Amino acid sequence: MALSMPTSKVPAASAVQANNPAIKAHWLKQLLQQQPFRYLVNGGVATVVHFLVLTFNLKVLDWESAGLSNIVAAVCGTIVSFLGNRYYVFPGSTEPLFKQIYRFSFIYVAIAMGHGLILYVWSDVYRMNYIFGFMLATVFQVTCSYLGNKFMVFKA
């Protein structure tokens, strides 16, 4: 004689909780309070601005140079990144604005050079796939940028 478990038409508690808008809102609020998550959100917004300005320069303004368009777009994305870091990711910073701009600029130039060096060594010296090298360099960039911003630029 086989035993069978009774079935119920009442959904499990976890399923009810997962569909509860109040629980979802609380979960999202908790996530948005986490500094690393806010950093990623800010980076995503800055990247979108960078891409939109690049596309605008090429498609609307009809600039011929993608390189020049990208430089202007990168400056716009970097400004958005700085402002987002200062006011959204690291709002408790007490450092003067110009000191933060100087440190931010220094760190970003150093990280960009490190990114380029990693990709150069990975792809040009060792002849490995540039896409994986780019992803590796980007992990380096995001990690160094977060730590540099947290402990050097926007320190509390």
Distinct helical segment count: 6
Radius of gyration: 22 Å
Largest sheet: none
Residues in β-strands, percent: under 5%
The portion of residues assigned to helices is: over 70%
Summing up helix and strand content along with how strands pair, one would put the structural category as mainly alpha
Mean of the pLDDT scores? 89
Give a count of the beta strands, DSSP E runs of length 2 or more.
Answer: 0
List keywords for this structure.
single chain; 156 residues; mainly alpha
Written account of the structure:
The chain is mainly α. The chain has two domains: 32-91; 94-156. 78% of the residues lie in helices and 0% in strands. It contains six helices and no strands. The chain has helices at 13-18, 21-32, 35-60, 66-89, 97-125, 130-153. The longest helix is centred in the C-terminal third of the chain and has 29 residues, at 97-125. The chain is globular and about 55 Å long.
Task: Indicate the topology.
Layout: H1 13-18, H2 21-32, H3 35-60, H4 66-89, H5 97-125, H6 130-153
Helix pairs in contact: 3-4, 5-6
Task: Give a quick rundown of the structure.
The chain is mostly helical and 156 residues long.
